[in-house]
């Protein structure tokens, strides 16, 4: 698509009347509530799915690579924000032994041929929380900030050609388009800096849609502890750092910068508008959850055309939901009436070193929701503010964060072993409740239990690697790039048939 065609599409999107768009979304929300009350969005059982994002690097140099759009289509992956991004989604499966095995098998079945096909182009697909090596001959700053003006529309040079992505830099909403992190200050003209980060997103479909608020409440309370286990983005591309002492930059690094990047880029830089990316509230009813989507500020209203899908009856609300960025969010959709579902999308986790690690998080999250809701676990009574504090503490310090938990006997604890011992036991019990054998349930939980026992996450592995190099007077840039090379090399051997603990 030419720049002029893309600019025209952006201008068309920006010409849509926001008030009329919001009115239609609100009307659709009322119809959605009716369908939920009638049982249309109920399932006979819990169902799980997973989104997996990757980025591309040069197979020889390890530098970031743009993926040709034709190649992306050949390997069956979807476009994401940056030209270097690729995304795949698993087919929803029942939460049982066969369903989880199918999730893992589907990821491998799609990744294996994709890796072979991209290798012919000297491209390697990487599962990681944040890339750190820019394209050859470019700086990360240039790659993230390069843009042009086309017919009065600001277009990011290295962004995919979806009009909604580019529209975010051209609306009245004061999108931050910046990064503020320890020793990093970046300003851009588009939301392209968000393409630094990649994630996995487990989905859990609720058997009975009106029960979504109860599951959601527990999802918020496990968000911090699960994020602490999954952190995988302690360093930025070196040229993004301000002029500071290398050892100080290493000392001050957060274990998961992905959280801050997403919030900084998309939230307003001041307090004149509400944050779009944030830790969500508890909901008292499923109707309240739907109302929260309706109340969210629309930043890119578009002329939404109807189609043959069942959920096209809620097309404006679904489009609005696309920029309803919460770290945990409710989703209501379905291609047809029989597949309509209410689910929880769990968004805090960065992409993981291996397929097994990603599926372990998916299984643990699903097992926890199963157990905690069924036994009405006392952590339900934890203050929302404490759950939020756990979340941001985990992003900063990973497994060294000060986390608070309420145990099954109602006692408050900050003891690491007690917290994770109870979490893993609850996850195992939930998986067994769904029909998994004890050994199968333990197999899914084991990679995460190993991280907790060893106090080692992918972020800590990266941080230790860089810290050791800097201690030996290796310049920070070389230390980060050396770490990244080791990460990709380890992943090449283990992505499909290993786990992160094999690296230790």
TrEMBL record:
Top-rank taxon, per record: Archaea
UniProt-recorded name of the protein: Gamma-glutamyl:cysteine ligase YbdK, ATP-grasp superfamily
Species name: Halosimplex aquaticum
């Amino acid at each position: 698509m030419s720049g002029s065609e893309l600019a025209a599409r952006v201008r068309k999107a920006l010409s849509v009347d926001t008030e009329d768009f919001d009115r239609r979304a609100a009307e659709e929300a009322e119809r959605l509530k009716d369908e939920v009350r009638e049982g249309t969005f109920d399932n006979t059982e819990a169902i799980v799915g997973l989104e997996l994002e990757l980025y591309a690097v040069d197979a020889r140099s390890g530098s970031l690579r743009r993926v040709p759009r034709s190649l992306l289509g050949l390997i069956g992956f979807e476009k994401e924000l940056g030209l270097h991004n690729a995304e795949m989604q698993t087919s929803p499966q029942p939460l049982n032994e066969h369903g989880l095995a199918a999730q893992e098998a589907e990821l491998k079945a799609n990744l294996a041929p994709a890796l072979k096909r991209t290798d012919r182009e000297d491209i390697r697909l990487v599962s990681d929380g944040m890339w750190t090596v820019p394209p050859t001959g470019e700086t990360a700053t240039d790659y993230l900030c390069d843009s042009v003006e086309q017919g009065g529309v600001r277009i990011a040079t290295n962004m995919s050609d979806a009009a909604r992505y580019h529209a975010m830099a051209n609306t009245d909403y004061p999108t931050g388009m910046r990064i503020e992190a320890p020793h990093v200050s970046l300003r851009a003209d588009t939301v392209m800096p968000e393409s630094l980060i990649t994630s996995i997103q487990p989905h859990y479909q609720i058997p009975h849609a009106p029960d979504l608020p109860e599951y959601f409440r527990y999802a918020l309370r496990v968000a911090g502890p699960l994020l602490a286990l999954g952190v995988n983005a302690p360093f930025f591309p070196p040229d993004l750092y301000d002029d500071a002492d290398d050892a100080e930059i290493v000392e001050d690094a957060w274990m998961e910068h992905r959280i801050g990047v997403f919030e900084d880029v998309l939230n307003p830089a001041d307090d004149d508008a509400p944050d779009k990316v944030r830790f969500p509230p508890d909901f008292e009813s499923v109707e309240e959850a739907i109302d929260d989507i309706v109340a969210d500020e629309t930043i890119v209203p578009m002329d939404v055309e109807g189609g043959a899908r069942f959920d096209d009856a809620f097309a404006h609300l679904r489009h609005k939901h696309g920029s309803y960025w919460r770290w945990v969010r409710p989703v209501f959709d379905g291609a047809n009436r029989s597949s309509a579902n209410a689910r929880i999308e769990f968004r805090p986790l960065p992409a993981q070193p291996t397929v097994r690690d990603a599926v372990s998080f998916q299984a643990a999250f699903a097992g926890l929701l199963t157990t905690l809701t069924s036994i009405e676990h006392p952590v339900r009574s934890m203050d929302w503010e404490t759950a939020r504090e756990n979340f941001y503490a985990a992003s900063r310090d990973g497994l060294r964060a000060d986390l608070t938990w309420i145990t099954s006997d109602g006692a408050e604890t900050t003891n690491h072993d007690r917290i994770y011992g109870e979490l893993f036991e609850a996850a195992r019990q939930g998986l067994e409740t769904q029909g998994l054998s004890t050994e199968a349930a333990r197999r899914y939980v084991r990679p995460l239990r190993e991280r907790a026992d060893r106090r080692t996450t992918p972020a800590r592995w990266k941080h230790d690697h860089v810290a050791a190099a800097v201690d030996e007077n290796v310049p920070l840039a070389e230390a980060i790039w050396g770490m990244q090379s080791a990460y990709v090399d380890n992943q090449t051997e283990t992505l499909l048939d290993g786990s992160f603990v094999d690296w230790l």
